[in-house]
Amino acid sequence: MIALIVGLVVFLGAHSIGVLAPRWRDAQIVRLGAHGWKLAFSAASIVGFVLMVWGYAMARTEGVVLWISPIWVRHLTAVLVVLAFILVVAAYVPNTYFKSALGHPMTAGVGIWAFGHLLSNGSLRALILFGAFLAWSIAVFTARRRRDREAGVAYPPWRARRNAVAIVVGVVAALVFALFLHGPLIGVRPFAA
Fold first, then answer.
1. Boundaries of domain holding 37
2. Helices (DSSP H) in 15-123: which residue ranges?
3. What is the pTM of this model?
4. Per-residue model confidence as pLDDT tens digits over 129-170
5. 24, 107: one domain
């Protein structure tokens, strides 16, 4: 469990610097240069991610179960994960309704992904992993929206065609991941009988 927690602290900590310490981040970019900062950020993110994955896999042997979800929750989780994929894609497609309405659709998508997985995974390790991502996404989303309001950020109006791109790509990516990649990469087949 220690590796999982350290990985979460490193990964989510690196992804929180822009919100928690923007001046320090800007100073490091000046000191290291944009490429140097990106390299340091990427290295910290990779180390944190590897520790998270390794720690989560190691915690599988502990098997502390806090709750068992009814079978239908698996379907609710699938719907939430598809929505999360759409929001993550929308972060990269300009002028979508999701970007206009939410401002930070990727952060919202991470929160929805984490919430969905919390619903259907009642182990202690799942609570730590997905609970940390959910808490992080709520805190960061709230801070970013507050910062946007204070700065008077206005997002451009959305276009229906851009929404269609985000939705189609998000749904296809979610289906491909669930049906072909989740099992080999995560060790769980979401729709296995």
1. 1-62
2. 17-20, 22-59, 73-90, 97-102, 105-120
3. 0.93
4. 999 999 999 999 999 999 999 999 988 888 889 999 999 999
5. no
